[in-house]
Predict the 3D structure of the following.
Amino acid sequence: MKAINGIGVSPGISIGKARWLNKTKAVATGGLLKNEEDILAAIALFEAAVRLSVEEIEALLKEREASLTEEETAILETQVELITDPQLNDDVLALIRVDKKNTNDALLEVVTNLVELFENMEDEYMRARSADMKDAGDRIWKNLHQYQNNAQHYESDTIIIAQELTPSDTISMDLRYIAGFATQAGSSAAHTAIIARTKGIPAVVGCGVALNDVNEGDLIVLDGQAGEIYCNPDDNLIETFGEKRNRFIQINGELKQLKNIPANTTDGVKITLSGNIAGVDDLDAINDNGGEGVGLFRTELLFMERASFPTEGEQFELYKQAALRSKGRPLVIRTMDVGGDKDLPYFDLPVEQNPFLGYRAIRICLDRPDVFLTQLRAILRASVFGDVRIMFPMISGVPELRAAKSVLEEAKRQLSLSGIPFNAQIKTGIMIEVPSAAIIADILAKEVDFFSIGTNDLCQYTLAVDRMNSKISYLYDPFDPAVLRLIGFVLDQAAKHGISAGMCGELAGDPLATKLLLGMGLKDFSMSAAAIPAIKKIIIATGLDDARHVYENVKQMDNSETIKAYLRGL
């Protein structure tokens, strides 16, 4: 049986039923109502769709009260407000009664006008309501046409099939019932891949149009390691992959027995294994897998999928809870890293030809010191509850770093004047993900307490390859000698200047790279929680002399395929 091939981004075997996450586009029909009977029917249809939309959200809020984050709850409550807004209701009914427009067209016209109205307002908060208004309109439209909400009720062993998944797509998913993800677009660094690895769900992305051959309800076998999908397989194939899945589960169970064993090399060198998180609940998985803290807290999800920038109080509560649940272990909080592929519905980000090279991350923060200052104050306030550290993303040079540190000092000054406690000696570091920063690592090392190498962006910027573009995914290769040289230089300069240097990019969780990275001098690894046991197993069986020998051999090789073949043979 021929497989649908994609990019395996989260290992494991899934066998389950396909469930398409459809995003049907709303379009006007142009049809007019003929008589009073049609008008009354159209009004009843609209009122039923509004009622169903509200009931749908209220049921979700009640059903998942314990698991929804504060931000997710706020998103859903805002939708209820907008769906029941009197202006929306009156405007739709007026178009139906007076202009005799059908319910579909009346709803689309009103929602479009309201979205434009919000977008053109001077007040930033009101402009932010445009995205919420569109979401509310989409929900009513979906219920108007009785489309099932693919994002809510799933049976066990469901495999989600989609063109791509965004953060908002996963908010109402009960991931307990999701056995796997398969998407047409995406790469190993896409949102789907990161979520899947964080939750330990097998996933294949970048499958292209071949995924259209999968129908709703088809039986699917998904191999998240090999990047293969089989649709309606025969009994022999199901049995083969069933055995493979059982072996994978057994091996994972054995690896988890290493939970309480220190990640020391055979010659006694202590290696720190931390986890990357997107929310406080992800800390449980780090603890379950034997992690030793958080090497990367992606705070941008707190800023996404909501109606406005989170307040200082909202951020403080989240960071405080993360610090308390970290129980004295390091918690590295990365400041807001939006832009690129991460939009804010309430923030008017410019449309750019090259968004990954444009207005994003620290560049936005320095351009909006009010937003930046609010986040830094919240992090500082939380620093008294644990070993909290601050990390600035996408630093490209010394002036940028000093500007960020200046805002941090202003946040400290304000808190001091207000008598609010914080850790005045909080450790501050930067992500090394821009080649210019890697090249001047010796200079930047004098300015910070630590480095954290973000291999996802460092690779795409070094090799000039869009890491989200499945068409050129073959060029995205962190084992390329150019990328490895930059990593090696950064680690060397950190050691020479007496600061720590970790790695929080996906390469840190790749078993093929572990011995090489140890040989390069990496002692702090941060990765998805599910990857920790496998990396620990390699570390406790490796001596640093052997690892350095591996690195010396790799330095003599001139292409990534030769390097990877050598590493596979170790």
Notes: The chain has a mean pLDDT of 88. The two ends are 32 Å apart (CA to CA).
